[in-house]
Amino acid sequence: MTTPPVDVLPDPALLIGEDRLTTSSGGTLQHRYAATGQTTREFPLAGAQEVDRAVQAARAAVPVWTALPRDQRRRLLWRVAELLRENAEELALMSVVENGMPLMLATHNPAVTADLFEYNAGWADKVGGAVEPSWPVPALDYSTEEPYGVVGVIIPWNGPLASIGMVVAPALTAGNCVVLKPPELTPWTSLRFGELVAQAGFPPGVLNVVPGGPEAGEALTRHPGIDKLHFTGSGLTARHVLAGAQQNLTPVSLELGGKSANLVFADADLPAAVQQAVGGLVQLSGQTCLCGTRLIVEDSVYDDVVQMTASFLDHVQVGDPLDPQTVMGPVVSATAADRIMGVVERARGESRLVTGGTRLDGDYADGYFIAPTVFADVDNGSHLAQNEVFGPVLSIMRFSDTEDAVRLANDTPYGLAAYIWSSDLQRTHRVAAQLQAGNIWVNGFFGIPPSMPFGGVKQSGFGRIGGRDGIREFTRPKNVWIAL
Ligand code: NAD
């Protein structure tokens, strides 16, 4: 196993206004490298005091940021994108050390975030408002899109840089100042991002970065100085976020988990469908929110798809995340590995294990490696099919006709993403219209383009990030009516 390049990690300091805090009320935490379980560096955790300081710094920066001419805001956002690209190699290595993401995947990350900043920079001088029709008396009625003020952003550990691009970029573009709280498992890329924002020339306090755990998260959700909250994470924590936000009736948007259906019809390009299903399973060891974890296959091709899935997985290289050939690395922590193995053990009694189902041993025993795991003949009512595993575990089940496929796909509390594979164009449109999901991909998946509105329905959350809707999420209309 390659030794992690710990020297790429940024200074462990909270970024609040112009201050760099190396001690904090939340104590310290030792970060661990998921591939070996070894400690990397210790860092200070934000407590309620630092969150309060960060909110004050952001509040002080609001008049400065909103007064900055739009073209200057645009240039600053664009400069962040340039700096992300200039520091891409270092950020990619940092992502590997941070959560065990394979280098192959981490290499794309900085460019994806840079794309999102460039896309949003383009809106910075265009977001404005509209003139509304007005009657019965002559009047000028116009709406402006105003920023909220200070936005609290809570992100998960699975892709901090991606979350930053999806959420922080539009929040800043819309004219807000931000307090970003990365999780305690993965502080590094967020801290480095904060340094790059300062280097780009942003006024101090426009972005503040306070890594921490539940204490910092709760302090942010309950803080009266927060005008809007955006939370990305699990449904369980989202309930705490909503409970905290109700104190000040702070508006919240939620990006939560999923149990997304991947529907494969008999007339589909089966190798392409299976390749994408396997890609989703192994990408970041199944720790992505929009993974198509329920592969729902038409009866007549079911056995072929199960067999093809197992053979595709035979060729997936699992192991050292720093080896550029590695496709799948470890899961994020020992706790996550134990939890996922608990789900696997329970599923053994309920479904047919096709492949995997074990922790990796030998050289991998000290890291948090789980073999990519496939269960077939899964009952959609089972624990495995109804709960987000957030690990490399795929459920395969069968459907008899289109109506059955749609029923199974929608039979879940979640509604984040769905995938359809079929060469019948009319059917794909019909099925897409019936699926309860915020985002649907047909016959392929190439990530989330910056212009795409992204988000869930049902218990996968509410609100949208991405595209024009993503900026709207961080503004509120103010209407002015003038009698003429
Ligand atoms: P999590 O809910 O455990 O943690 C998310 C964040 O909430 C972290 O920053 C954590 O420190 C913070 N937090 C913990 N307790 C808190 C509290 N009481 N109050 C406020 N904040 C608190 O989720 P996770 O394990 O970090 O991430 C995995 C989950 O995130 C999965 O469900 C996944 O599907 C979801 N996710 C969703 C999207 C999306 O865009 N829909 C993207 C990535 C991940």
TrEMBL record:
Catalytic center residues: 255
InterPro entries: Ald_DH/histidinol_DH, Ald_DH_C, Ald_DH_CS_CYS, Ald_DH_CS_GLU, Ald_DH_N, Aldehyde_DH_dom
Domain Aldehyde dehydrogenase intervals: 25-480
Family under the similarity heading: Belongs to the aldehyde dehydrogenase family.
Keyword Oxidoreductase: yes
Species classification: Bacteria, Bacillati, Actinomycetota, Actinomycetes, Mycobacteriales
Molecular function, one GO term: oxidoreductase activity, acting on the aldehyde or oxo group of donors, NAD or NADP as acceptor
Name of the protein this chain belongs to: Aldehyde dehydrogenase
Pfam family, one: Aldedh
Keywords for the protein's UniProt record, in alphabetical order: Oxidoreductase
